[in-house]
Write a structure and sequence with these properties.
CATH topology: Rossmann fold
Number of strands: 13
Order of helices and strands: EHEEHEHEHEEHEEEHEEHEHHH
Shape: globular
CATH architecture: 3-Layer(aba) Sandwich
Strand order of the largest sheet: 3-2-1-4-5-6-11
Helix content: 25-40%
Number of domains: 1
CATH superfamily: NAD(P)-binding Rossmann-like Domain
Length: 364
C-alpha cells in the first residue's frame, strides 16, 4: 500500500499506557483506528474489537480485508507487561500476538512500528539466571524479556518493513504524572512512599533508566511523520539516567513535600540479602504475603543492578524529542510520585496545574 497524505494508522494496545499517550500525540493528519480487545477506548474515534491471539486478529474476513486495504502504518503497542502472568500468557500475546500483527502488516503492505523494550539488551540480569534464590516471588521478569526478544525475532524474520522501538521503563506524563495503569516501577515507588521498603538491594550507582510516556509517544509520532521504515530506535535516558541514590533523593524530597514522615531505605548489596538478610532475618519471620512482596521487589530491582548505559536515539529523530536532561528526569519522576500519591491518597497532594509544562529536553 502506498502511504497517502493522510496515513491511516492501526494502533494496538490503544487503551494501554503507551496507546493512550500516543492517541494524545498523533496529529489530526493521521486517521487512527484502534484495535481493542474488551475495554472501549474513549480517545479513539474509530475502534475495531479484535483479539491478537486469534486468526485474522479475531476479525471476520470482510473486516480484515477492509483493514488491509486502508492501513498504511501499524503501531503495535499491545503487550503483557505484568511479570506475574507466567510464560504461557506472556508469550501468547507478546510473541504469537506479534506474529498476527506482522501478518496483517504484510497483507496491508504497511510499515510496522513494533514497541519492544530496551531491557532486551540485558540477558544476565534476572535472579534466576544469575543463580540467586527467587524465593516466594511471583514476579518473573525473565518471562517478559524472553517474550519480547521472541517478538523482535518475529518482526526481523518477517521481511515486513519495520522499526523496532525500544523504550526503557515508562513512567507517567512528564508534566502531570498521569498514566492509564500503574506499572512495576510504580509498585516500588509506592512501597518507598509508604515506608514499606527498609532496604534497596542495589549498588547506589545502578542506573534506573526511565522515560515519560509522552516522550515515547512523541518519538513514535516523529517516526511516522518521517516515514521511517527500518531500524531500531532507543527511547531512553541514556547517559543521563538517574542512579539509584538519585532516585531515592527525589523520593525523599517528595515525601517531605507531601508531609510524609517516611524513612528512606538503606542501600545494600544483593549478596548481603542472599547470605544474611533473607535467610537469617526474613525466613520464618514474615507472613508469606509479606515475604512474597519482598521477593517480588528483589526480582524487580534485579532489572537495574549494575545496568549498563542504554543507547538513546533521542535528538536523532526529525521533529522528535531531544535528549532528556537530569532536570527533565527529576521533574518527571516528581510528577509521577505526586500523581501516585494522589491516587493512593497519601499526604498533602495538591492537584497539578491545568496545563503541562514542556520539559527542557522535549520540543513543544
Amino acid at each position: 500500500m502506498t502511504p497517502s497524505s493522510r496515513p491511516t494508522v492501526l494502533l494496538t494496545g490503544a487503551s494501554g499506557v503507551l496507546g493512550t499517550a500516543l492517541l494524545a500525540e498523533l496529529p489530526s493528519s493521521c486517521e487512527v483506528i484502534a484495535l481493542i480487545h474488551q475495554c472501549r477506548c474513549p480517545a479513539a474515534a474509530q475502534q475495531i474489537c479484535g483479539d491478537l491471539t486469534a486468526p485474522r486478529l479475531g476479525l471476520d474476513r470482510a473486516t480484515y480485508t477492509d483493514l488491509t486495504r486502508r492501513v498504511d502504518v501499524v503501531v503495535h503497542c499491545a503487550a503483557v507487561t505484568d511479570f506475574t502472568k507466567g510464560p504461557e500468557a506472556t508469550h501468547a500475546l507478546n510473541e504469537a500476538g506479534t506474529r498476527a500483527v506482522v501478518e496483517l502488516a504484510a497483507d496491508a503492505g504497511a510499515v510496522l512500528h513494533h514497541v519492544s523494550t530496551a531491557f532486551v539488551a540485558r540477558h544476565e540480569l534476572t535472579r534466576s539466571r544469575i543463580g540467586r534464590d527467587t524465593g516466594e516471588a511471583g514476579a518473573r521478569p525473565e518471562d517478559y524479556l524472553d517474550s519480547k526478544r521472541a517478538g523482535e525475532k518475529v518482526v526481523r524474520d518477517s521481511g515486513v518493513p519495520a522499526v523496532i522501538v525500544r523504550p526503557s521503563i515508562v513512567i507517567g506524563d512528564s508534566g502531570t504524572g498521569k498514566i492509564s495503569a500503574f506499572q512495576g516501577l510504580h509498585g516500588i515507588l509506592l512501597m518507598l512512599l509508604r515506608g514499606l521498603m527498609p532496604l534497596v538491594p542495589l549498588p547506589a550507582t545502578s542506573l534506573i533508566d526511565f522515560v515519560p510516556q509522552d516522550v515515547v509517544a512523541r518519538a513514535i509520532t516523529a517516526l511516522i511523520a518521517d516515514g521511517r521504515r527500518e531500524g531500531e530506535v532507543w527511547v531512553t535516558a541514556g547517559r543521563e539516567a538517574l542512579r539509584a541514590e538519585q532516585v531515592l533523593q527525589v523520593v525523599s524530597d517528595a515525601c517531605t513535600e507531601l508531609g510524609l514522615s517516611t524513612v528512606m531505605p538503606r542501600i545494600v548489596g544483593a549478596d548481603m540479602v542472599d547470605r544474611l538478610i533473607r535467610p537469617v532475618f526474613l525466613a520464618g519471620g514474615l507472613p508469606k504475603r509479606a515475604l512474597r512482596r519482598f521477593d517480588d521487589m528483589l526480582a524487580m530491582t534485579a532489572l537495574f543492578a549494575d545496568a549498563p548505559t542504554f543507547p538513546t536515539s533521542l535528538g536523532e529523530l526529525p521533529g522528535g524529542p531531544q535528549p532528556l536532561t537530569r532536570h527533565d528526569l527529576d521533574a518527571a519522576l516528581r510528577q509521577t510520585l505526586m500523581y501516585l500519591a494522589r491516587a493512593k491518597k497519601l499526604g498533602d497532594t495538591p492537584e497539578p496545574a491545568a496545563t503541562r509544562p514542556v520539559p527542557a529536553g522535549v520540543p513543544a
